[in-house]
Amino acid sequence: MLLRGTKIVRIADGYSHAFGFLSMFSSSSLQSSSDQTMEGTAFHISNLINRPNWEHDKTLKSLASHMSPHLAGKIIGLHCNNVELGVRFFKWVCRQSAYCYDLDGRIQLLNVLVSRNLFGVAQKAVVLLIKECDESENGILKLMDALDGMTEMGFRLSYPCYSTLLMRLAKSNMGFAAFLIYRKMVNEGFVLGGIDYRTVVNALCKEGFVQAAEMFCCRVLRVGFGLDTHVCSSLVLGNCRKDDLKEAFRVFEKMSKEESCMPNSVTYSILIHGLCEAGRLEEAFQLKQEMVEKGCLPSTRTYTVLIKAMCDIGMTDKAMNMLDEMITKACVPNVHTYAILIDRLCREGKTEEANGVFRKMLKDGLCPGVVTFNALINGYCKEGRVVSAFELLSVMEKGNCKPNIRTFNELMEGLCKVGKSYKALFLLRRVVDNGLLPDRVAYNILVDGFCKENQLNMAFNIFNSMNSVGLEPDGFTFTALIDGLCKLGRLEQANGILGSMVKKGIFLDEVTFTAVIDGHCKVGKAKDVYFLFENMLKNRYLTTAHAFNCFLDVLGKDYKLNEANAMLGRMMKYGLVPSVVTHTILIDGHCRAGEMALSLKMLEQMKQAGCAPNVYTYTIIINALCNNGRVEEAEAILFSMSSFGVSPNHFTYAVLVKAHIKAGRLDRALQIVSTMVKNGCQPNNHIYSTLLSGFVLLNNATGGGAINSSGDLESRSLSSEENDYNCFLNHVFRLMDVHHALRIRDEIKKCGVSTEDLYNFLVVGLCKEGRISEADQLTQDIVKHGLFPDKAISSIIEHYCKTCKYNNCLEFMKLVIDNKFVPSFASYCWVIHGLRNEGRVQEAQRLVSDFLRHTGIEDKVAVTPYIEFLMKEEEYDPDECLKLIKAIEQVHYKERPII
Q: What is the 8-class DSSP label of residue 297?
């Protein structure tokens, strides 16, 4: 479903044939073609490229798609007298042929040209390759190595080739390599221009080789070139890169006194960036102001540097204000400016604001790069909004911005986050379709995703596949497996994985050790890993209190408080500072043992030691006081928390609400809820469940019915275990009626709380107990009043689907949509799957179209394949997953993607 019909590479639906296309046009198959056929093809294509607008000829594109470098070189040779046409064809075929698409293929084509003595085309082709080479060191070094090899065939680089290469090396921060190229140019008798000298100085300074740059400047002066603003600005840059701002400002001051070297906006921007990197933001703004006063207007670069500096320290609002100032001053933001803001907003979870900036960027006529798209896709994926992320991928592809491996890694991570690891695995098909190969990060994401879904067998299959594709598992891979095994209680296997890490020489960090220790402690086998703990202490691997906290938690729950205190002393002996979690665990242990006086004393000692208690510390104390019937003391502590800079959370308030409900003081419980809302904390399901139980108990007490049930309900409400809480909640929903729901709604309204979350809680609970008619009626009423409880709506749709009442479901969805609310993507998936299973395919397809229309997706054609992929009902099938993994492995044994 992920593939469009126009893509070159198409992976068949049957995974056993998923990569069969790789053998269709391999090098050997092309070589098996007769020389006569190749000659005929070469002459045919040669005639085609003589026509006007030949680049857009569909027949030619079809022929070029599987054209080898050898054939391409032969065609260019047929036009040896037309260098311009040869260069145009070289450039075009590199973008069309699967064999010439990457750098290796292009170098091979260049070798063919040189071997045919087509030096004129080759010279210009080298300039093109240098310009199109990515900014990483590996790419440019590979090209330079290939060019050195071509000298044996009599090929020499021209001055434009060398000059372009110098600029590329400077751009890639490869100063030493640029200097070596300069020496080679001199040795070959080239006369360098001023731009070449300036480029070498800039390249050296970018790497911080200031002394070398200054010595080179002396050579420049001897050959008759003078210092100018460009050269001096490079020296300022070099000193900034060395973190020598004092020297940078000394050069800057000298520039200000020389007419030929006056600082410009680039010079100022370099210094401002240096100040920002040193954390001297206030001075950077002062320099910007000085810049304006001296008649030098801040450039896009100046503003972008300041915006990034503010984003780096979390001053996002001020960064946005700086963007507004920039636009007001008619200084146009560039792609990098917007990318910085989008990335920061996404990191802060402000994805909608980031999307607004992205749309503004498009409105300004800028084409976002892969970095910008990746930042926004990552933001959506972190929020679990994979539909929006895939919609953005379709926009990206439509705009001819090719996704990179990081794009797909973020999408896979997003799918794993929402529990769809098997879909993340199938996304690897799209990775290969884009001419990419999965990297270690991709495999780590999948291993971690399957571990979190307790699919350990598949996680190990992916783990074992890594070596087959030439990737070595790292510490993250092993730690994910260890953590997954420990959570399932498979401790022997976890220990075996730990041993494998040691054998492979992979450094065992504190995270790995702590995962093993925590896993053993949680199942009561702390003694089995105590030797490991001792080893960590002996080798000074411990830098935090995490491992100690695992043992302290076990000792506290077993009421072994003397041993826990001894462990605390040992921790301090090794120079580790007890964290707030450490103190909280100890306080919890004393509370469990009923030692309230000691717990309160420890709370005060924490404050005196400068380790401020957090909300969990206070909540444990308040809960213990309530369990001991000391509710008034608990309330006093809760109301004093804010004076110590700690705000109570839902759980803190829930403890007190539950205590008052238990004592039959419903009015007082509601007063606590009202205080909670005034302090900016909205009630959650724990609060609602406790209040609802209070109303049910009160009704039973006054009505004289269900006394045994109410007694059972009360006893359940005191349990702190999750399973007991769920049983208690189910019991509440069996006893309640709509009257209770309306009454709690009225009381919640008086407290100033929005009732939307309450309705979500009530409807979800009723649906779980099968009371769908009451839940449906309740939801319909509130939807008509303009409230849209999303979880409530989803619960009703899910329940209708589980009971195969699709007509009722469609009617309910129509009512919701008519009232301007769009059900969730998951809700649409349930209904579409159900309709397809019942053979109602047309209705299901219409529902897909409705979803695209109602969610405001603009390019429906481009995004539909991705929506279908996400909606497709696929049961987790290990065999299909294994076939896909094996197919990916086979890609590594082939030369390159073929038609």
A: -
Gap between the Cα atoms of 315 and 308, Å rounded: 10
Report yes or no: 753 and 709 within 8 Å, Cβ to Cβ. no
* pLDDT at residue 24, rounded to an integer: 34
Q: In angstroms, how far is CA 794 from the centroid of its own chain? A: 27
C-alpha–C-alpha distance, residues 426 and 833, integer Å = 19
Rounded-to-10 torsion of CA 234, 236, 237, 239: 130
Rounded Cα distance between 161 and 520, Å, is 63
Residues in the chain with pLDDT values less than 50: 1-34, 703-721, 895-899
Half-sphere exposure of 436 (CA within 13 A, CB side): 18
State the helix-helix crossing angle for 841-854 and 806-818, rounded to 10 degrees. Answer: 20
Residue ranges in 65-193 assigned as alpha helix (H): 69-77, 83-96, 103-115, 119-132, 137-150, 159-171, 175-187
Vertex 320 angle, CA 647 and 324, to 5°: 145
Q: How far apart are the first and last CA of the chain?
A: 18
Please give the pLDDT value at position 1: 32
Inter-CA distances, 464 with 9, 123, 388, 459, 471, Å = 27, 46, 33, 9, 10
The tokens of 60 are what? 């030619």
List CB contacts of 847: < 8 A, sequence separation 6 or more. Answer: 828, 831, 832, 835
What does the pLDDT read at residue 13?
40
Q: Helices 772-784 and 806-818 sit at what angle, rounded to 10 degrees?
A: 20
DSSP state letters, 413-425: HHHHHTT-HHHHH
DSSP state of 604: H
Map residue 433 onto helix, strand or coil. helix
CA separation for the pair 695, 818 (Å, rounded): 34
Cα radius of gyration (the chain): 34
Q: What's the pLDDT score for residue 283? A: 94
Q: What SS3 class is residue 273?
A: helix
Contacts 24+ apart (CB under 8 A), 33-42: 38/71, 38/74, 41/71, 42/71, 42/74, 42/75, 42/78
State the angle between helix axes of 405-417 and 370-382 in degrees (0 to 180), rounded to the nearest 10.
10
CB crowding 275-298: b at 16 or more within 10 Å, else e: bbbeebbebbbebbeebeeeebeb
Task: Report the predicted TM-score, pTM, of the whole model to 2 decimal places.
Answer: 0.76
In this structure, the number of other CB atoms found within 10 A of the CB of residue 545 comes to: 20
